[in-house]
Amino acid sequence: MPDTSLLSLILTLRPLAAAKDLNALGRASHALLLDAVRWSDPALAEELHTGDGLRPFTASDLIGYSRRRGLNPGQMYTLRFTALTEPVARALAAAAREGPLRVGASLNLDGTALRIESISNRGAWIADRSEVYDPQSAIGDPKSEIQHSWAAATTYEALSAPWLLGRAQPESRLTLCFASPTTFKSAGRHVPVPLPGLVFGSLLERWNAFAPVALPAEVRRYADECLALSAYRLRTRMVQVKDGGLRPGAVGQARYVAISYDRYWLSLINLLADFALFAGVGAGTTMGLGRVRRLDQGE
To answer: Which of 86, 124, 239, 298 gives a 20 to 30 Å CA spacing to 248?
Structure first.
């Protein structure tokens, strides 16, 4: 079975001029990702653009930007792209090594130019004959790369091994960070609350869409019936949608606890919590929403 790869790529950017009133940065970031993939693999880019169903990638908005303060050439900002399949990971890594996402290149985001100052290097991709990830390798010039808590690269097999092979004791408590507005589509409505069934149901759907081995559908029921939202620091952030309206999403942190401990099901819950770093959670993850990762104890 061919390996399927997971990549979270962080670009640190500096604006070339001040700017205000930028709009639809999530959609602009989405378009940049497709352009980067198109540079490496035009057929794949067309498939990602026109395909139905879940997309095997996420794209953040411009992290650090606020409409009130505008863009400041003296400040750094970041973009984050993730890949959920090997072809997308390979295309993004190639674009970061020597294509439009390389260090020193300029990006156009909603009509504004930003220079790529550095690229994350935690678990960077190397395209050698073995076609594997090397956590110690670098995409570009090591002097221009940074470590970043949202950057990572691995495989589905490596991510799942500690949990599916029983090497790790599953935690009955875990905390997720919702770094960009997170909302869910449920029963025809948008729900801006990260309830356990919605969060882990979303992650399960993405895992089963792209992973080489599917997880049982009952994971969603376990999350819904046996996990509780035990503590949270959440606030509502309104997101502008393309029809000009506003939609609420949750940002902050939420802690989940198992009210019925079962090692097997909790192992799958912990695996999906790790997967959140790459997959995102909820609706709109390809346009800046649902940027989520698990927090270690003490964070």
So the answer is: 298
